[in-house]
Amino acid sequence: MLLPTGGGGMNSTMDDMNLIHQAQRHHLVVREIGEEIDLEIGPGDDDPSFSNNTLINVPPQESAGEEHDETKQMMIHQASGVNQDLLKTQPVKKKKKVVKRWREEWADTYKWAYVDVKDGTARIFCSVCREYGRKHRRNPYGNEGSRNMQMSALEEHNNSLLHKEALRLQMASKDKIVVDKPIYVKALMSKTAGSIIEAALKRDPHELEFIQSVQEAVHALERVISKNSSYVSTMERLLEPERTIIFRVPWVDDRGETHVNRGFRVHFNQTLGPCRGGLRFHPSMNLSIAKFLSFGQTLKNALSPYRLGGSSGGSDFDPKGKSDSEVMRFCQSFMNELYRYLGPEKDLPSEEMGVGTREMGFLHGQYRRLAGHSQGSFTGPRVNWSGSSLRTEATGYGLVFFAQLMLADMNKELKGLRCAVSGSGKIAMHVLEKLIAYGAVPITVSDSKGYLVDEDGFDFLKISFLREIKTQQRSLRDYSKTYARSKYYDEAKPWSERCDVAFPCASQNEINQSDAINLVNSGCHILVEGSIMPCTAEAVDVLRKANVLVAPSMAAGVGGVVAGELELKECNLNWSPEDFESKLQEAMKQTYQRALKAATDFGYQKESPEWL
Fold it and tell me: What is the pTM of this model?
């Protein structure tokens, strides 16, 4: 009777000992290593010192040891009769080596991971989806925290649907994780002009794009301000928008799920007349971009032949990949709030990045429904409603007309010149068209993922093919499958291609310092800004030192403003393309001559890269 009991007791004791060892090993993972290994996946710091730094809120070794001793005593009490010497054998040195080795490998291998605290516990988060790995994998601790299982957990996380969806959205929105860079402040000759920038920096220190546009304007006006100190107070008033509107835009997708985006409209200045300015739908849209766009539009409208104020706005909504129904519901919700601030004598929006015929049609339709009239139709491309015959071409054609005027003053012409163009939207395509008409050789276009170069140059047939590709939302690399002399470069810009004239028509700050150096080395002599503020401040310095002549967008880009006002004021629906083009050329010539006169009045020579 006693023998089976004794044998069972011995077996039970051995089982208890095994359980204790397993519990201790598991405790080692959870408490000693688990706090760090369980910090599973995270957004990257790119900090090489990560492997040498202690993790946030990780308990010190002493407290962990005390808790471990308490747990050990509980296990001793529960497993009476077990040799206590076995319980005291903890691989302390091995434990520390495991933690150190694991952390070093993590820091070397996963630069995109960062440490943060979640519910009082330090965890490692993924930079893409901003979640830690335990939320995405089946085994929260792996094989007791072993290196191989941890790597498997990472692989599983990267293959999870949530992670892939987050990565897809990140790539679609170009919302990459970047470190905030300090504002580049250039030295000014005049203390008076410097005080204007200092005041703007103090008021809006985090609005990088707006501060950059202010610096650009103040530098251009430095001689004007130094001649008349009263302009300082004028500039201070000008740099504060008259009205800033920020509002919520709820909308429902095709699956019935509700989304909320943010809408913006900035009426910057109406001293000269009612506001005119674009609407931009893009994930990067924020208040700083809305202010810089409306400030630039104010100066552009003032330089045009018409008395107009400046405005701009939009939303962080991304129309790419959305159905017509989803875009319609968003535009209607957007207009439900904005319509009360619009009107022919208040503000009329026009198309910008992400806003085309479809979006403008939905916006205008909702405006008419809410306002009860259609006075002052929006200045933008239209289908089956009033509009000038070349409204969509006006901005792109105007850029080429302006470049031709500059070259004519230098006794040159566009014919035969190699031209690098960025972007592949409305403006870029119409720049290509008019360059071909003038005999130039446009060789590049680009999109968000790279650029396409055709060494033979584009012609009208090739442009039609490019438009077909864009309409079908295909990649520009499909072009190179048809034309053997062309090549598509991923994650690159076209500014290293040999060219005589550059037309940046994509977005703000698309040309940085290294791009400007590439342009200079490529033989570029003239840069015509198609987008507002396409060059960073550092890039502008490089171009000026290399004597590259820059045509600012506020002068070269007034074609769209001219066409919109011709449409609203003259309402001539029977213009031929030739009639409209002659009016546009005349307006561009007036703008160019006004710029020349101002440069001469304030002592700029035509040879100077700053004369425009």
Answer: 0.68
Q: 59-68, 70-79, 130-139, 220-229 — which is least confidently predicted? A: 59-68
- 393 pLDDT more than 60: yes
Residues 6+ apart with CB under 8 A from 69: none
φ, ψ of residue 453 to 5 degrees: the values are -125, 135
Pairwise CA distance, residues 91 & 68, whole Å:
13
Higher-pLDDT residue of 105 and 142 is 105
Instruction: Provide the Cα torsion 440, 446, 451, 454; round to 10°.
Output: -30
Question: What pLDDT shows up at residue 577?
Answer: 77
Q: What is the pLDDT of residue 247?
A: 96
**Intra-chain end-to-end CA distance of the chain, in Å:** 109
CB distance 550 to 612 below 8 Å:
yes
* Residue 237 amino acid letter: R
b/e burial code for range 163-181 (CB count within 10 A of at least 16 → b): beebeeebeeeeeeeeeee
If one compares 184 and 312, the residue with the highest pLDDT of the two is 312
The confidence score (pLDDT) of residue 478 equals: 92
Gap between the Cα atoms of 574 and 579, Å rounded = 10
Q: What share of the chain is helix, strand, coil (3-state, %, to 5)?
A: 50, 15, 35
**Dist. CA 488–CA 452, nearest whole Å:** 4
Higher pLDDT, 140 or 609: 609
Distance of CA 268 to the CA centre of its chain: 22
Does residue 56 have a pLDDT over 50? no
Cα–Cα distance for residue pair 198/288, rounded to 1 Å = 17
- Quick one: 10 exposed, middle or buried, by C-beta within 10 A (0-12, 13-18, 19+)? exposed
pLDDT at position 398 over 90: yes
Three-class secondary structure of residue 459 per DSSP:
coil
| Burial of 368 from C-beta contacts in 10 A (0-12 / 13-18 / 19+) | middle
Residue 561: count other Cβ atoms within 10 Å of its Cβ: 27
| Phi and psi based region of residue 240 (left: phi greater than 0; alpha: psi -120 to 50; beta: remaining) | beta
Lowest mean pLDDT among 212-226, 406-420, 597-611: 597-611
Listed residue (349, 478, 496) closest to 420, CA to CA: 496
Alpha-carbon gap, residue 422 to 403, rounded angstroms: 16
Q: Which long-range contacts (CB under 8 A, 24 or more apart) does 48-53 make?
A: 48/107, 50/103, 50/106, 50/107, 50/115, 51/103, 51/104, 51/106, 51/107, 51/108
Question: In sequence order, which residues have a C-beta less than 8 Å from that of residue 318 and are 6 or more positions away?
Answer: 172, 173, 281, 282, 283, 354
Please give the Cα distance from 260 to 248 (Å, whole number): 7
